[in-house]
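Subject: design request, 153 residues
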């Protein structure tokens, strides 16, 4: 079995990659519930993403020390952190998974900067479609990053 670090930096096994010339996207799932975490990663790998999963924000930060994911899929409330703060720390777009009811909760998360919000329970195909859309938007424009000291463009 591959380690989480290997999953973020290598091609997933037994998965057909997209037929485009683009490299697979790195998606990090942060979900405290182990079963849901496993199901989400398996579904994202079916789309050819390099998907990894952890159970806490601390694990996510530790995993992403050298390279941020292209997309974060995270439970709204994490131990000692939130999905929004974690996305800011990692510098990547985020799909927030929430159990809160009502439109006000969704609007608040979107106003706080969430790129998308899914209310639990949700369909795996809906999550996959929303990931594809956000990742497609991220690929528009420059395709590489240039770093000079603390400046990254």
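Subject: RE: design request

Done. Sequence follows.
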């Amino acid at each position: 079995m591959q380690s989480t670090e290997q999953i973020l930096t290598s091609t997933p096994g037994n998965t057909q990659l997209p037929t485009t010339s683009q490299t697979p996207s790195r998606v990090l799932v942060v979900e405290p519930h182990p079963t849901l975490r496993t199901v989400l990663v398996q579904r994202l790998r079916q789309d050819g993403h390099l998907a990894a999963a952890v159970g806490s924000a601390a694990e996510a930060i530790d995993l992403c020390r050298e390279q941020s994911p292209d997309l974060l899929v995270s439970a709204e409330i994490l131990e000692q952190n939130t999905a929004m703060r974690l996305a800011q720390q990692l510098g990547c777009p985020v799909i927030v998974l929430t159990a809160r009811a009502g439109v006000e909760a969704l609007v608040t998360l979107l106003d706080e900067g969430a790129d998308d919000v899914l209310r639990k329970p949700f369909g795996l195909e809906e999550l996959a479609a929303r990931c594809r859309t956000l990742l497609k938007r991220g690929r528009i424009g420059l395709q590489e990053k240039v770093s000079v000291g603390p400046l990254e463009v």
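Confidence is low (pLDDT under 50) at residues 1-7, 9-21.
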